[in-house]
Design a protein that fits this description.
With 245 residues, this protein is α/β, with parallel strands linked by helices. Helix content is 42%, strand content 20%. It has a 7-stranded parallel beta sheet with strand order 3-2-1-4-5-6-10, sandwiched between helices. Strands 7-9-11 form a 3-stranded mixed beta sheet. A two-stranded parallel ribbon has the order 8-12. The radius of gyration is 18 Å and the shape is globular.
Length: 245
């Protein structure tokens, strides 16, 4: 299959592009600065370049940039979906429970893009939890006893590739994904470091968006049955946090 991958220079898109290549698929890495034979030019603010990047593709992996204004993410995300209108299968990576009206700004923008995607003939939405991280202390604005859902980027890639390879299994499905669930101190112990509970007010000064996410995690929590997910997709070979580290 020929797959166009957006965000190919980032964590998720990069992992997807590598795994697709390993599995023998033809990958088009969409970037604003092509520098290899597998790269194709594409700019989120240039619809013509997006249509060209998706031309003749069998599949498209869509990821929107984090940290841009909400209206920018929505506009760019919808432009990606529109440009991929003739692609057989579109896989969009969102966020866990983004479709639940969480009030978290960067979740709600993804929910709006998801709604736009549902007009596509064959779509799949993956909702990753927080990315696993390594190095340094575990500093998070969450209580020490709160278990946080986390996901390995490699597992996001494995789910995306499986979706492209088994489209009917993933047809018009939204699947929240996490590799493990553990507390900040448990993560710190695995990494051989310490857990630092950052005051939520401090996180708010850094990013109101991220503070809203962690407040939601602490007060409401995510609805994601990790055991059921792993039982349904055992071929992913899910990483525990310890194994990933």
């Amino acid at each position: 299959m020929r797959i166009t991958v957006t965000g190919a220079t980032g964590t998720q898109g990069g992992a997807v592009a590598r795994l697709l290549t390993e599995r023998g698929h033809e990958v088009r890495r969409m970037t604003r600065r092509p520098n290899s034979s597998t790269d194709v030019y594409g700019d989120f603010d240039d619809p013509e370049s997006l249509r060209a990047a998706f031309a003749d593709a069998d599949g498209a992996f869509l990821v929107t940039p984090f940290g841009v204004p909400a209206e920018t993410e929505v506009r760019q995300g919808k432009a990606l979906v529109d440009a991929a209108a003739d692609v057989a299968h579109v896989v969009f990576t969102s966020a866990t429970n983004a479709d639940r009206g969480t009030g978290i700004p960067h979740f709600d923008t993804k929910a709006e893009i998801e709604g736009h995607l549902r007009g596509h003939p064959l779509w799949t939405v993956l909702g990753p939890a927080a990315f696993m991280a390594a190095g340094g202390p575990v500093a998070l604005p969450i209580p020490a006893d709160l278990k946080l859902h986390v996901v390995a980027p490699e597992d996001i890639a494995a789910m995306a590739v499986l979706a492209f390879e088994q489209p009917e299994r993933f047809r018009d499905r939204r699947i929240d994904i996490a590799s493990d669930r553990l507390t900040g101190p448990e993560m710190a112990a695995i990494r051989g470091t310490e857990f630092v509970e950052i005051p939520l007010a401090e996180a708010e000064r850094y990013s109101a968006d991220l503070a809203a996410m962690f407040r939601h995690h602490a007060e409401i929590g995510l609805d994601l049955d990790v055991a059921a997910l792993h039982a349904e997709f055992p071929e992913i070979g899910w990483h525990s946090y310890a194994n990933w580290i």
